[in-house]
């Protein structure tokens, strides 16, 4: 099989490392990849958020399977793009649909989803520039430390944990003024939960 992995982080390096060991792998490409993935396959200088460029590469290199690593192309709908394109729809693609990726792409959506299905989660509320005063009032109902999260994707940097109410109020205003660009046009404020955090990655056939 000819396989293309989308992404350039440690996650993609780990995936490439294991896929390269399979005797089913003929050629392995990583777009754009990193210094580590060079040891596993061939790095390809493609922006994985430019779906037409990905399509061209996939067709020109007879790719049989695509593995989507990063959040951005998933949130942008690359899986849907493949499934709705007559030239790509028969190619296996591993990743969530645009709707599924919204759990990662919007913290407000994820919190609402958890509330709707009674999945335990920290108490929260969501605010924008239009109701910043209510956001400050909500902060005052919480105990420190205060947790502020940019609603959208912020390359892993969109969460602030702040010890004082004064600092939390200041940072809320800055986030809503574009600290993280469009990602923080909406901010989720939630109560702080202490304890051990673990991430679980699941593969499912849908």
At a glance:
This protein is of the alpha/beta class and about 210 residues long. The chain has 8 helices and 9 strands. The strands form 2 sheets. A 5-stranded parallel beta sheet has the order 3-2-1-4-5. A 4-stranded antiparallel beta sheet has the order 6-9-7-8, sandwiched between helices.
Structural features, described:
There is one protein chain. A hairpin with an 8-residue loop joins strand 7 and strand 8 (159-162). The protein is elongated. It has a five-stranded parallel beta sheet with strand order 3-2-1-4-5. The chain has helices spanning 10-19, 51-60, 71-76, 78-83, 98-105, 107-116, 132-139, 165-176, and strands at residues 2-7, 27-32, 42-43, 65-68, 92-94, 124-128, 146-150, 159-162, 186-191. The two termini are 23 Å apart. The protein is built from eight helices and nine strands. Helix 5 (98-105) packs across helix 6 and helix 7 (132-139) packs antiparallel against helix 8 (165-176). Helix content is 34%, strand content 20%. With 206 residues, the protein is α/β, with parallel strands linked by helices.
